[in-house]
Design brief:
Rhopdopsin 7-helix transmembrane proteins; 0% strand; 11 helices
Length: 251
């Protein structure tokens, strides 16, 4: 569990660092311009880390499934080697799927208004600034979302259905509550990640009449809120982390 938490923390930190240059530039020194190459590089890392976080959340769901449904086999199933392989597979999947996007955007000419709604670059917004047919980009972008976020969210729901089935078969009410309590932090992290991501995707693809302020707010919530809240959630719900934080700041 702590190895997966470390992966989640590193991914959240990476997302924050990817958005930091442009966010700080806008709000601290008023720098509102970004070059094409810098923009394409930023969106590559943002999308890559976003889909990597989706994979990490799926891995954590699998961790909860094994801990609750196969507790006697937990140590033999989730060995350090298996966890490293899961992490590498998640990273490779994200990089392979996102790698074509900057090159697909780079081939377009850009003209007219080139103003972004967010303080960072996203594929679904940058491609709309192109003076060319973006149908291929739109289709590929949808394919990437379905093959990552779509599949991951369905597998997470399936794992929790199995967890719930196992928990309801436990005779003791106290034991049922104890088992479910171990999943609260992960459920909160899943909701914090998927809800803004799905909302932002819906707004960009179908909410053309949505107020500009809504797009701006959703953009900030999508990338800045989960990295802020995940450490708080896991610090509150995980006794070992809470005790270590308390010792670090109180002694």
């Amino acid at each position: 569990m702590y190895l997966f938490l470390s992966m989640l923390a590193i991914t959240d930190l990476g997302l924050s660092l990817c958005t930091l240059p442009t966010v700080v530039g806008i709000f601290c020194i008023g720098a509102r311009d970004i070059g094409h190459d810098a923009c394409f590089t930023q969106l590559f890392f943002i999308h890559c880390l976003s889909f990597l976080e989706s994979s990490v959340l799926l891995s954590m769901a699998f961790d909860r499934f094994v801990a609750i449904c196969r507790p006697l086999h937990y140590a033999s199933i989730l060995t350090n080697t298996v966890i490293v392989r899961i992490g590498l597979a998640s990273l490779v999947r994200s990089v392979v799927l996102i790698f074509p996007l900057p090159f697909m955007l780079k081939r377009f000419p850009y003209c007219g208004s080139q103003v972004l709604s967010h303080s960072y670059c996203l594929h679904q917004e940058v491609m709309k600034l192109a003076c060319a047919d973006i149908k291929a980009n739109s289709i590929y972008g949808m394919f990437v979302i379905v093959s990552t976020v779509g599949i991951d969210s369905l597998l997470i729901l399936f794992s929790y259905a199995l967890i719930l089935h196992t928990v309801l078969s436990i005779a003791s009410r106290a034991e049922r509550l104890k088992a479910l309590n171990t999943c609260v932090s992960h459920i909160c992290a899943v909701l914090l990640f998927y809800t803004p991501m799905i909302g932002l995707s819906v707004i960009h693809r179908f909410g053309k009449e949505a107020p500009h302020l809504v797009q701006v707010i959703m953009g900030f919530v999508y990338l800045l809120f989960p990295p802020l809240m995940n450490p708080i959630i896991y610090s509150i719900k995980t006794k070992q982390i809470r005790d270590r934080v308390t010792r670090a700041f109180c002694y």
